[in-house]
Amino acid sequence: MVYFTRALPAVVLIAGAILSGLAPAAHASLLDINFTATGTFASGSGFATVDSSLISSGNAGTTSLSDLQGFSLTLTGIPGGGPATTSFNLSNLSLWSLQESGGTINDLNFFMRNNPVNADGYSIEGFEEKMFDLCSGPAQTDACAGGSTQLDQLTISVTSETSASPEPASLVLTGLGLAGLGWLRRRRFLS
After folding, report:
1. Which of 19, 65, 122, 172 is the most buried (most CB within 10 A)?
2. Which helix (H) or strand (E) covers residue 37, if one does?
3. How many CB atoms lie within 10 A of CB 84?
4. Where in the chain are the domains?
5. pLDDT at position 28, please?
6. What digits encode the pLDDT tens for the residues 9-26?
7. Cβ(156)–Cβ(36) under 8 Å?
């Protein structure tokens, strides 16, 4: 019984080390694609968070919203008498597009077609590679919907691709694993 009591902390810490080694494999590595959007009047910046495997050395692409882990876009300088600044998030989108070749992003775009407008009454709708309309009102396929006004056309430029922050559970498991390995090393050193 004494042996089991002394060995239990080692077993728990070794299990933590094993799990921390498996945690990154169980969860996709996330990548933030940072971008700017520039039009005649409006401009802004945003990010799209994706699984890093979508940006590979081959040719890849997706339009599935389930592949988009996070999205934010803030625009300022909007003409037309409504709010001059507005923001869009993932819940506003009905579709998106990511196309890459050889690790270079050829198309990044976002669509709100047939979705309600955002909180400020605006929508965005891609119509060409890395280009979208800003509408005062709803959007339809490749344009502002009837009754909506096209306020600006904006061009998307990718500014950087950075690793997204790891999730807290992975950090805890990694910490447990490192503590277990350190404890085992110390125990062997003292023996």
Report:
1. 122
2. strand 30-38
3. 14
4. 2-27+167-190, 30-163
5. 63
6. 554 444 444 444 444 444
7. yes
